[in-house]
Write a structure and sequence with these properties.
- By secondary structure, the protein is mainly alpha-helical.
- Helix content is about 75%, strand content about 0%.
- The longest helix has about 35 residues.
Amino acid sequence: MTFADADLARLLVALAVLLLAAHGVGALFSRFGQPAAIGEIVGGILLGPSALAAGAPSVQHWIFPATGSSAAALGAVYQLGLLLLMFAAGAEMRRLCSVMRCGRWG
């Protein structure tokens, strides 16, 4: 897998858009008293085929191509993000369980 300059630019733009959307929507959710993680997930959904592709399909296909080296790299980033999300959820569940067993709950 080799990266041309255009593929690298697409990858960096896609990562920047993903991070900005996740952080922005997460902060908005936090402001309304909701978990930031849910807002980050909603930010990702808004960039997917359900919202961005419905409103601006050419923009969505340019930022997130279906084929090519940048698509493969983005796929790896998606999988890493999912792995980290599951790890964080498991760590939070473990923390909650240890708090409940110690009698410090409520």
